[in-house]
Design a protein that fits this description.
Length: about 375
């Protein structure tokens, strides 16, 4: 169904947003985008671009009002979601979650505090107001995080108190509000969980293994595997039960929600939650595995207020892998031949010869591919 006269404002121009831009273009929407930086690949797909900080609610609201946009959305960006909600609420546009909920999910301190220490599945934590607060923490190893950053920026694994003082100032620089948090380190397998909600009901869920670089801090992602090899039916029930309790606690009733969890002795523990599609293109991996298109579901729901009926038809005999092609920052990109007989899809974020930007500072994504295992 083409809706040419309608206008979609996508916040951000990164690789995750390009997925959304392309889908909305195919719907016939007029595409607008705001970002503090501009991605050359994305700009060529956008009808109107304005260099605006997507965290600046007033500026984005003014743009949306001036251009009379009909929808505001983003994928893969924690920073964008409070703005998406605030602008949509202010202008009476369709949206999935409230500004209050989006802000809680975007801020690690607010999230942990809102869940509370008695919420089963929350992680032990300590808010660090000043350097001396570390004396209140005694459990090592642990994880030091900026309160409101994304993409594993500034995250550090701490083996002792001395390492806190070594990394504290660096981590603090990655927080817009100038706060950090200490969380207990969960020594167990990582999983990703994608769910979809309508009227408060989970109508879709998918668990996958999240494989990160062990040699770098912060859980920098390198692969996703589907189906999960670290869960059984009992564990899966616990995971979906935790997801259900979390969205109820946070008053999320509509749209996609993405979780990062870890398993501790078979019990799921929340690491991150985001009321949006993830930034790892897992919708595409899910589409290969289950023939369900979460990206299409999201925009159908947002634009039309409904989605087509879905069926759970996973190919249980097949296993799939989404693998990021990674390289160290500040090097020049040299594309390698990644074609294999099991390759289903691949995409590059950079052209040959382009310099790799430092995002997490250790190992950066320059593309990804999906294969059958």
């Amino acid at each position: 169904m083409l809706i040419k006269k309608k206008k979609m404002l996508i916040l951000g121009t990164g690789s995750a947003q390009i997925d959304s831009i392309l889908y909305c273009r195919n719907l016939g929407l007029e595409i607008h985008s705001c970002s503090s930086t501009h991605d050359k690949k994305a700009i060529g797909l956008i009808d109107h671009f304005s260099q605006i900080d997507i965290a600046d609610v007033n500026a984005v609201t003014d743009y949306a009002r001036e251009h009379q946009v009909n929808y505001v959305y983003s994928t893969g960006s924690d920073l964008a979601m409070p703005t998406v909600a605030a602008v949509s609420e202010s202008l009476g546009l369709p949206h999935f979650v409230s500004w209050k909920t989006a802000l809680i999910c975007q801020n690690k301190i607010s999230l942990r505090s809102s869940l509370g220490t008695d919420f089963f599945g929350n992680i032990p934590f300590l808010v660090i107001e000043e350097r001396g607060d570390i004396e209140k923490w005694a459990e090592y190893p642990c994880v030091l995080k900026p309160s409101d950053s994304q993409g594993q920026r500034g995250v550090r694994f701490l083996r002792n108190q001395e390492e806190f003082f070594l990394y504290y100032e660096e981590t603090l620089k990655h927080s817009l509000e100038g706060k950090v948090i200490i969380e207990k380190f969960i020594d167990g397998p990582e999983i990703s969980v994608n769910i979809y909600l309508m009227s408060g009901e989970i109508i879709f869920s998918q668990i996958s293994d999240r494989i990160s670089f062990q040699e770098y801090p912060g859980g920098i992602i390198k692969e996703h595997h589907m189906p999960s090899s670290v869960t059984d039916r009992e564990t899966e029930d616990k995971i979906i039960s935790l997801a259900g309790r979390l969205v109820k606690k946070l008053a999320i009733k509509e749209g996609p929600v993405y979780f990062q969890m870890k398993l501790e002795h078979g019990e799921p523990i929340l690491i991150e939650i985001a009321p949006r599609l993830d930034g790892c293109h897992l919708w595409r991996l899910i589409k290969y595995y289950k023939q369900i298109d979460l990206l299409a579901m999201t925009f159908q729901h947002l634009i039309f207020g409904r989605i087509e009926s879905i069926s759970d038809e996973a190919n249980e005999k097949a296993s799939y892998c989404l693998k990021f092609i990674c390289e160290k920052p500040r090097r020049k990109v040299k594309r390698e031949n990644i074609i294999t007989d099991k390759l289903l899809y691949h995409e590059w974020y950079y052209n040959d010869g382009e310099s790799i930007l430092p995002i997490n500072g250790f190992m950066e994504k320059i593309g990804y591919c999906i294969t059958m295992k």
